[in-house]
Amino acid sequence: MIYREFARTGFRCSAVGMGTYYDIRWIASARLLGRRPREDAIVRSIRTGLDSGLNLIDTAELYGSEPLVSKSLEGRDRESVFIATKVSPTHLRREKLIRACERSLRRLKTGYIDLYQLHFPAIRVPLSETMGAMEELVDRGMIRYIGISNFSFERMKEAEQALRKYPLTSTQMHYNMSYRKVEEQILPYCEKNGMALLPYYPVGHGRLASGGRQPPALAADLCRKYGLRSIAQLALTYLVSRSNCTFPIPRARTPEHVAENSGIDALLDPSDLDALASAYPER
Ligand SMILES: NC(=O)c1ccc[n+]([C@@H]2O[C@H](COP(=O)([O-])OP(=O)(O)OC[C@H]3O[C@@H](n4cnc5c(N)ncnc54)[C@H](OP(=O)(O)O)[C@@H]3O)[C@@H](O)[C@H]2O)c1
């Protein structure tokens, strides 16, 4: 696994992390009925990832998966893992945000969250109020770093300007080798400003993995050239190679897949990256 500093935090993160969004029915079951389908397999998957060197986990209050993150971490050194979670867009007023963070801390069974992200931009709440509350959480030691998700380039800059005391550490966006919109403005901006970018849907929600859409011939050629075991590994390697600031977070649900996703050791040459991007036209 390749390791790199997560933005300017000093924390060395695995370049590939683990995502814990399952699907809408899973969320409904977890949140409304308190039943989490495939709980044992999910916990086993996350532990497989941790044992294989993945030390970045992404969750969200919305996903209903925070309790499984804490269960997976039982008996482990908290300081060795970088936990990223997200506050829902309905909790962006100061009071609500602080209470949402307290609940996440309880579900995660931890004293602090490494990265607290705004899951989506607010529609009605001023960014100054939300970011002021985020900075208060840092001051209180409840979170270490502030991130965003699903913000356009313009809104990302507004979010950054709304912060008074601490930098914007990361953004999380839909990004994979067949959906590369962030390469236009957001990725270069992150690189220039020392921010991290967490690509979600890194294997196209499964479409780019084996069994998904027919890959171009070049994909198989590059797997052979770089000793990659699957198109899923190629998809993750594409993201990790494109920039030093990317941390893709493929979903952790199947131990075999997580083990495979933890085997990212090679970086693609720039010419191969460009050829791969051309072979996967934008969707
Ligand atoms: N910020 C946001 O708004 C947002 C939105 C969506 C997602 N996310 C985050 O991003 C994470 C990833 O997104 P996602 O789960 O939707 O998409 P994804 O990771 O691109 O795709 C998940 C699919 O790919 C399969 N897969 C993963 N690794 C594989 C491998 N090595 N070989 C074959 N198949 C493989 C999974 O199968 P198995 O399940 O069987 O392993 C699953 O069907 C989420 O878990 C969440 O943390 C954030």
Low-confidence stretches: none
What is the helical fraction, as a range of percent? 40-55%
CATH-defined topology: TIM Barrel
Mean pLDDT score: 96
- What is the alpha-carbon Rg in Å? 18 Å
Q: What is the overall silhouette?
A: globular
Summing up helix and strand content along with how strands pair, one would put the structural category as alpha/beta
Q: What is the total domain count?
A: 1
- Give the H and E element order: EEEHHEHEHEHEHEHEHHHH
Give the strand order, joined by hyphens, for the main sheet.
3-4-5-6-7-8-9
Assign the CATH class.
Alpha Beta
Q: What ligand molecules are bound, each kind once?
A: NADP nicotinamide-adenine-dinucleotide phosphate
Number of helices: 11
Q: How much strand? A: 5-15%
Walk me through what this model shows:
The chain is globular, with a radius of gyration of 18 Å. The chain starts with a strand and ends with a helix. Strands 3-4-5-6-7-8-9 form a seven-stranded parallel beta sheet, with helices on one face. Strands 1-2 form a two-stranded antiparallel ribbon. Helix 6 links the parallel strand 7 and strand 8. It has one domain (3-279): TIM Barrel. Helix content is 41%, strand content 15%. The mean pLDDT is 96. By secondary structure, the protein is an alpha/beta fold. Bound molecules: NADP nicotinamide-adenine-dinucleotide phosphate. Residues 19-21, 58, 149-150, 172, 200-206, 209-210, 230, 232, 249-251, 253-254, 257, 260-261 line the site of NADP nicotinamide-adenine-dinucleotide phosphate.
